[in-house]
């Protein structure tokens, strides 16, 4: 037993010595030579162990060579570098366009881009530099745009518009650097959109295989010796004939030794083959026409070399392509929804409005006069700051203490729209909407231009849209062409003239037509181009040109000034790029029966937690509020008061009260602004037994309703409290 223990101890010492030797060799190889201690001798003879000299090294202190040892200079508390985020996106490249917004390509349009090689894929990280991204983009689209090695691909990033299926050019400074993090922030979850700043070259026919058809380069080389009328099929057949004529002499001698019958059969076979080759050549020529649909002799000058001719042909084709005026691809079937319009305008507003504010003072009693003084100043046209509106008190000739956080500005825009069409004297009403009134003083003072500037400011800065113009006026604003204006007699403001033209249009007998035309004799001979003799065949043309003269031609100077003012904030270009935005100016054809439900849907209740004691009370108040809206719309509110005695002012206010008054009381705007409400309107609840009248916070777009025993009672108290609140805030709720 003692021999076995001695053997085990000897083996352990041998293993320890081996580990020390390996550790010493590793240290020597990785650093400068160091002094080592003398080797320790061990007794391997069986029997009692002999005393040996201890090294002072334990089993635990010996480092294993397979375990990485931390250097002494490495801190255990060292910071690790933050990992970069990795992104993989589809790159969608749109062709160059001067427009400011673009529709996101989907369906067939995206398939066409993929077919043209304008869709690729990129992987990058957040720490990539702008140069790395440009190099990667150039590599992706080098073949599509025929870029040479080392040539950079010029492009521009496009960002998605929130809440709208549109793209826009980001509003950044010229020194802004597009790194990986910045590019990822403007891309969607799966796509990165860019716009090429160069045009895609024409598809090169040389990319086709030589085995399929003869290269067009060869065709261009032979164009010097071929008449301009020579077709591609003739060129190809001529080449095949030349090849057949160049047969070797030995082959001709072999034909002479063949019997005549055999030669005839071979001739028939050759004739069949030649006809087959000719049909194939014609098919190849047809394929060539589809790929290269030009007659080579038409655009290649004889005196130019082939490279110069090819370059000139490409440049000429590109010039012809870009000289064609851009056609608006937005069809009537692709009109934008209200949400998309609001998102588009919100993005445009954030891009054009600067960060500063412009203080203006407005009198509610003289909105038009005080607003005109501000908007007609030349400095106003040069400023793109947001308006900060302060109303002067009409009773005490003092300044109100309300800070403009959005509510006073929306109220001012609502009052300004009313003043433009009712108090300015620049418009007249027609059955189809408002049209400019020819006012020479306004025309000389540029009032119509100032009105256009007002409309642009209202649209961009969050006011309710000035949608009171007739469709014919909007047609001229959007198109800028008189011939594209659609008119009818109802576009005329003069009632007598409108009635006479309606009689002409609806006359069924020639006698009735002549009587109706005779009523127009006082002015029709002064208009050049109108038919002198009006018959049933040309009466529609007579009515159309007459209406066009009275509504557009006579007022064209006024309309041109209005259009010039709408260019403020870039609204005019936005209207012409997106015809669906004409709803911002067109008189709306809304269903008045849905007005109460519409207002109730805008004011979203902010309930307490479901299941709480307050939740049931708040739901009852919402029911009473929506019943109040329905009674206002149906003119049944007076019946709900029963035997309650109302003052004369309250009786008069009931006659004009509408759901729009409630929306104006809560938000400052009787309609939804063009860019939407920010923040979203809310219906808040306050549980207080001492207060009863509703309170509005127009800056926050909140309507506070008090929940207590009085407002929850089964009587007319809630309705009467709401009526009193609206009358007390009549300055805010007047529409």
UniProtKB/TrEMBL annotation:
<dbReference type="GO" id="GO:0061025">
    <property type="term" value="P:membrane fusion"/>
</dbReference>
<keyword id="KW-0833">Ubl conjugation pathway</keyword>
<keyword id="KW-0472">Membrane</keyword>
<feature type="region of interest" description="Disordered">
    <location>
        <begin position="26"/>
        <end position="64"/>
    </location>
</feature>
<feature type="region of interest" description="Disordered">
    <location>
        <begin position="204"/>
        <end position="287"/>
    </location>
</feature>
<dbReference type="Pfam" id="PF00632">
    <property type="entry name" value="HECT"/>
</dbReference>
<dbReference type="InterPro" id="IPR050409">
    <property type="entry name" value="E3_ubiq-protein_ligase"/>
</dbReference>
<dbReference type="GO" id="GO:0000139">
    <property type="term" value="C:Golgi membrane"/>
</dbReference>
<feature type="compositionally biased region" description="Polar residues">
    <location>
        <begin position="247"/>
        <end position="262"/>
    </location>
</feature>
<dbReference type="InterPro" id="IPR000569">
    <property type="entry name" value="HECT_dom"/>
</dbReference>
<dbReference type="InterPro" id="IPR035983">
    <property type="entry name" value="Hect_E3_ubiquitin_ligase"/>
</dbReference>
<keyword id="KW-0808">Transferase</keyword>
<feature type="compositionally biased region" description="Acidic residues">
    <location>
        <begin position="204"/>
        <end position="213"/>
    </location>
</feature>
<keyword id="KW-0040">ANK repeat</keyword>
<comment type="pathway">
    <text>Protein modification; protein ubiquitination.</text>
</comment>
<dbReference type="GO" id="GO:0061630">
    <property type="term" value="F:ubiquitin protein ligase activity"/>
</dbReference>
<protein>
    <recommendedName>
        <fullName>HECT-type E3 ubiquitin transferase</fullName>
        <ecNumber>2.3.2.26</ecNumber>
    </recommendedName>
</protein>
<feature type="compositionally biased region" description="Low complexity">
    <location>
        <begin position="45"/>
        <end position="58"/>
    </location>
</feature>
<feature type="compositionally biased region" description="Low complexity">
    <location>
        <begin position="272"/>
        <end position="284"/>
    </location>
</feature>
<keyword id="KW-0677">Repeat</keyword>
<keyword id="KW-0963">Cytoplasm</keyword>
<dbReference type="GO" id="GO:0000209">
    <property type="term" value="P:protein polyubiquitination"/>
</dbReference>
<dbReference type="GO" id="GO:0005634">
    <property type="term" value="C:nucleus"/>
</dbReference>
<feature type="active site" description="Glycyl thioester intermediate">
    <location>
        <position position="699"/>
    </location>
</feature>
<feature type="compositionally biased region" description="Polar residues">
    <location>
        <begin position="226"/>
        <end position="240"/>
    </location>
</feature>
<feature type="compositionally biased region" description="Polar residues">
    <location>
        <begin position="26"/>
        <end position="44"/>
    </location>
</feature>
<dbReference type="GO" id="GO:0007030">
    <property type="term" value="P:Golgi organization"/>
</dbReference>
<feature type="domain" description="HECT">
    <location>
        <begin position="377"/>
        <end position="705"/>
    </location>
</feature>
<dbReference type="GO" id="GO:0006511">
    <property type="term" value="P:ubiquitin-dependent protein catabolic process"/>
</dbReference>
